[in-house]
Amino acid sequence: MRYILTAPRSMNCEIRLPASKSISNRALAVNALAESKGYPENLSRCDDTDVMVAALRDMPYEIDIKAAGTAMRFTTAMLAVGTGEHVITGTERMKHRPITVLVDALRALGADIEYMGEEGFPPLLIRGRKLNGGRLDVAGNISSQYISALLMIGPMMKEGLALHLTGDVISRPYIDLTICTMQEFGADVEWEDASTIIVKPKPYKAVPFYIENDWSAASYWYEMLALMGDEGSEVRLPGLMDGSRQGDSAIRYIFMMLGIKTKFADKVQCKPTLVTLNVQRRALPRFDFDFVNQPDLAQTVVVTTALCGIPFRFTGLQTLRIKETDRIAALKYEMSKLGYVLDDSEEGVLSWDGTRCEAMAEPVIDTYEDHRMAMAFAPAAILYPGLAINNPEVVSKSYPHFWDDLRKAGWTIEEAGD
Fold it and tell me: pLDDT tens digit string along 116-132?
C-alpha cells in the first residue's frame, strides 16, 4: 500500500493522542506480576501493547510477540520467573534483533533459557522457575529495555536485585519510568547511588493505574507546526502531563528552540490536561543535541531541522542501529531522496552541514517496517506536496489512528498501489 499526502496550509484542530506505549507495556508487566484481575486504565491500543495483552492473557506454549521489541524483552524476563515452559518468538526482523545481553543476565540470576535458532537471537525456550536474585553487573549503555526487564522481575526474586550499571548510563529517563511504575504498584525500589538500583524482595500489590497519553506521538504534531510555520495554526492535545516521567516529554523543550510554544491548561504537574501548540518564529543558526535519553525522538527532529534548513549534529544515537530497522542508515537514505546529504561517519552521531544533493522529482519514502519512519516523514509533505509513503500501515505499532488524525486536521490522503 502507498499513501500520497497533501498538507493543508494551516491547522486548527484537537487531536486525541494514543496512550503511552512505554507506560502501557511497563504497567501491563507489573500489573500481571501483581496478579491483578483487571487492566490499567487508558491502555494503549497499538500493536506492541496488543501482543503483550494477548500473551499475558492466554499464555500459550508458543508466544508470538511479532515485531514488538519492548514486549519481547519484558515478556522474556517475566517468563523466566514464571511457571511452566514457553517458546517466545517474533517476526523475521525480531529473529535478527540481539537479545544476548538480557539472556546472559537472566542466566546469571539462575534462569533456564535456551536459544532455539541462531545463538544470541530469538526464538527462545524458557522454563520458568524461582530465581534467587542478588547482585548483577550490566553495562549502562545497553538498551534501557533490558535494564527495565530485569528491574521489573526484581521483587519476584528471593533476595531481590542489586543492579549495578557499569560505564555510561544511557536512556536514564526510561529506567526512571520503570522505577516509578514499579513504585506505584508497591515495589520497594530506588537508586542507591548514580549507578546502582536496589530492588527489595517485596511483592507487588494490585492497584488502579491510569496511563497518560504519549509524548512521542505528540512529536509529529510539533513537527507539522514547525514545518508549516503558520503563526495562525494551533493544535490542541488533551491528556498530556506537565512533569511527565516520559523521557520523550523533552520534545516540548526541543521544539521550543525550533519555534513551537507549549501551553498547559492546568498548571498542576502530573495530572492529565490540555496542551496547546502554537508557532512563534525563531531563527536558529545551528542545532546540536544529545539524544542519549530520548533516542525515539531523533527521526522527528532530524527531518524537521534539515527541512527547516538548520545544520545539526545529533549524538547519543548508538541504539538506533538495532531498532525496528537501522534507523541511522534509513534516515540517511530517505533524506537523500529529499535532497539532503547526512553524515554518519562517527558512531552514534548523525549530522548535516547544509550539503544538498538533487532531490527526486517524485520522492517515495520507504518505511522499513518502522512506524517512526512513516510518522517522521509524513509531515515533509508540507514542503513536498504529493509526497508518497510506502507501507503506511506500519503506524499501527504505536499510533494506529495517525492517518485518521491527519485527515481530521485537514490533510488529504490518497491511496495508491505499490
Answer: 999 999 999 999 999 99
Does the pLDDT of residue 7 top 70, yes or no? yes
What the block records as the C-alpha cell of 410 is: 485537514
- Positive or negative, the Cα torsion across 181, 182, 188, 193? negative
CA distances from 196 to 86, 137, 147, 167, 184 (A): 31, 9, 11, 11, 20
Is 296 labeled as catalytic in the residue annotation?
yes
Write out the H or E segment, with its range, that includes residue 14. Answer: strand 12-14
Q: Phi and psi at residue 239, in whole multiples of 5°? A: 85, 10
pLDDT tens, position by position, 342-359: 999 999 999 999 999 999
Angle at 28 between CA 115 and CA 39, to 5 degrees: 140
What pairs with residue 315 in β-bridges? Answer: 290
Q: Is 76 exposed, middle or buried (0-12, 13-18, 19+ CB in 10 A)?
A: buried
DSSP count for the chain of H helices, then E strands: 12, 19
CA–CA distance, 219 with 27 (Å, rounded to integer): 23
Q: Which residues lie across from 202 on neighbouring strands?
A: none
Q: How many CB atoms lie within 10 A of CB 184?
A: 19
- Amino acid 240 reads L
Query: 2-6 and 260-264 as β-strands: parallel, antiparallel, unpaired?
Result: unpaired
CA distance 410 to 44: 25
SS3 314: strand
Using omega within 30 degrees of 0 as the cis cutoff, is the peptide bond preceding 311 cis?
A: no
**Catalytic: which of 50, 296, 366, 370?**
296
